[in-house]
Design goal:
The protein is built from 7 helices and 3 strands, in the order ββαβαααααα. By secondary structure, the chain is mostly helical. It has one domain: Jelly Rolls, CATH 2.60.120. Strands 2-1-3 form a 3-stranded antiparallel beta sheet. Helix 2 packs across helix 3 and helix 6 crosses helix 7. The longest helix is centred in the middle third of the chain and has 27 residues.
Length: 143
């Protein structure tokens, strides 16, 4: 992505949207499962501010991989980086307190609280809107 911010989300069994990722400037995103298997994704991607995207089809990426080994290395490194991000997110959700998750989010994505809805931030952190509001107030009073 050249500019902007994306929100990646899916719906749970009760139809509630659950944000699993925010993709910011100069980052890549895709549903790797969908990309690899060539099937519809379980995730939706939404722009949450004006965005400029660069896109590539799976056919074109395969062609690049075949034509030049450097592209295969780049593709592998991008997938490895995405795996590390996903694993880090899973660890954060399961090990850190709500306050620690919020602080890590604003450290890693400082502009996200200006562009994302509080409901989306809360679902990304695995907390309720009420809990996130309380955490934000606590942090404000710490300063």
């Amino acid at each position: 992505m050249v500019e902007g911010t994306l929100r990646i989300f899916s719906s749970n069994q009760s139809g509630k949207e659950v944000t699993t990722c925010f993709c910011t400037k100069h980052k890549t995103t895709t549903s790797y499962k969908s990309f690899i298997r060539q099937e519809p994704s379980e995730f939706a991607i939404q722009t949450i501010e004006n965005a400029q995207l660069l896109t590539i089809t799976s056919g074109d990426i395969e062609k690049l991989y075949q034509e030049n080994e450097a592209w295969s290395i780049i593709g592998r490194r991008l997938m490895e980086r995405e795996y590390l991000v996903m694993e880090g997110y899973a660890v954060m959700l399961n090990r850190e307190s709500a306050k620690e998750k919020y602080k890590k989010m604003i450290q890693d994505m400082p502009g996200i609280i200006q562009v994302a809805k509080i409901e989306d931030l809360a679902s990304y952190l695995g907390v309720t809107r009420r809990t996130l509001t309380r955490i934000r107030e606590e942090i404000l009073h710490e300063r």
